[in-house]
Design a protein that fits this description.
This protein has 297 residues and is of the alpha+beta class. The protein contains 7 helices and 19 strands.
């Protein structure tokens, strides 16, 4: 039995967090403020849960949203600051070199590999980014280590919807709550991946979460990234070496995945440097686009 998917039997939802932790439903260029629906969340005392309370109670929240939606105030998306759609993930999991052309590109450029051995994802496995690296599209990227190369990496992200241990790839999609666009920002160098990818704001998640029922097959989505209007990355998730079901199977064979855990699936070829002042536009089919400003930390 899969998790109750919020859009099943009804239309899907695009859920965003904005401004001071408010909750919105995105409708075109506007959002409806449905923060009142958070009243159905349980009140927690210490110790806090290991999962994100909103994602862990998504069915109850979305049921409540449908009640409050008709009277919910409307405002333009352009007038708010979009935060990461998941506030409290227990972990941020990421897949390295998960597109063959990106693997080839990294192996062929010392500016990318810095003498580090670059193995296939089957040999390398997965890595973790610090949860403190998480930021929303409206918060932007604050670059540090400006004497070194900082690169953009656009990725499909999925959010785990229920506790997963030892899940087979045949059942894996039942454990997904929704999808978003991710920017896995990377400082190039010789250190471990998880360190170089865990600076504050180096895990951009947004612009919202599309509930899983809107994307029955995450393995057929076009994705792209442009910097200052110039396309740098363009591919399709069919080119993933390990797709979403295989990634869930792999991760859940090592550790438990909890509601709200965020999973970056890997980036295609075309990674390149970004600098303060740049504007990134990242797009994924069926999710949308997000504009992210780059500044110095």
């Amino acid at each position: 039995m899969g998790p109750s998917r919020p859009g099943k039997g009804n239309h899907y939802m695009r859920l965003c967090r904005f401004d001071n932790g408010r909750l919105g439903v995105v409708e075109g260029e506007n959002l409806r403020d449905v923060t009142a629906a958070l009243d159905v969340l349980p009140a927690y005392r210490y110790p806090l849960p290991t999962s994100d309370p909103l994602i862990g109670n998504l069915a109850a929240v979305t049921d409540r949203i449908r009640t409050v939606l008709p009277a919910a105030p409307v405002q333009p998306l352009s007038a708010v600051t979009l935060l990461a759609p998941v506030a409290n993930p227990g972990k941020v999991v990421a897949a390295p070199v998960n597109y063959q052309k990106h693997l080839d590109e990294v192996r062929g450029d010392e500016g990318l590999h810095h003498q580090n051995p670059i193995n296939t994802i089957q040999k390398t496995g997965l890595f973790l980014k610090a949860t403190s690296a998480l930021a929303g599209a409206g918060e932007g990227i604050a670059l540090r280590k400006l004497d070194r190369r900082n690169d953009h990496e656009v990725e499909l992200v999925f959010i785990i919807g229920k506790t997963a241990r030892g899940v087979s790839r045949d059942e894996a999609l039942d454990y997904v709550a929704g999808y978003a666009i991710g920017l896995d920002i990377t400082i190039r160098g010789s250190e471990e991946r998880s360190l170089r990818k865990s600076a504050d704001s180096y895990a951009i998640l947004g612009p919202w979460m599309v509930t899983a029922d809107e994307i029955p097959d995450p393995g057929v989505l076009d994705l792209s990234l442009a910097v200052n209007g110039q396309t740098r990355q363009q591919s399709n998730t069919r080119n993933l070496i390990l797709g979403v079901p295989a990634l869930i199977e792999l991760a859940s064979s090592f550790y438990t995945l909890y509601p709200g855990d965020i999973f970056f699936t890997g980036t295609p070829e075309g990674v390149s440097p970004i600098e303060p002042g740049d504007t990134i536009v990242a797009s994924i089919e069926r999710i949308g686009s997000m504009t992210v400003q780059v500044r110095a930390a």
